[in-house]
Amino acid sequence: MKRTPEEKLLNPRPGSKIAEARDFGIDLTQLAANLRYTPAERIKRNDAAANSMIKLAEAVKKAKLREKQSSL
After folding, report:
1. Is 52 exposed, middle or buried (0-12, 13-18, 19+ CB in 10 A)?
2. Does pTM top 0.70 for this prediction?
3. How do residues 22-56 score in pLDDT, each as one tens digit?
């Protein structure tokens, strides 16, 4: 019987590239969980994460600028 992609990720065959990735330290449970979403949901979640990172980078940049200005 053919295994699902989730089964392959959670129980990789010894010596497979997936097992190699797991042994390297890649969290395959996160990949498996992501496969439970539809492609549209994955895109939406990726966009939200990317937007959060942009906002974080902007906040860090502003904080550094304020810190620099207050030290003058």
Report:
1. exposed
2. no
3. 999 999 999 999 999 999 999 999 999 999 999 99
Token pair listed for 44: 């939406």
Structure tokens at 34: 């992501």
Q: Which amino acid is at 38?
A: T
3-state secondary structure the chain: CCCCHHHHHHCCCCCCHHHHHHHHCCCHHHHHHHCCCCHHHHHHHHHHHHHHHHHHHHHHHHHHHHHHHHCC
Round to whole Å and give the CA distance between 17 and 52. 32
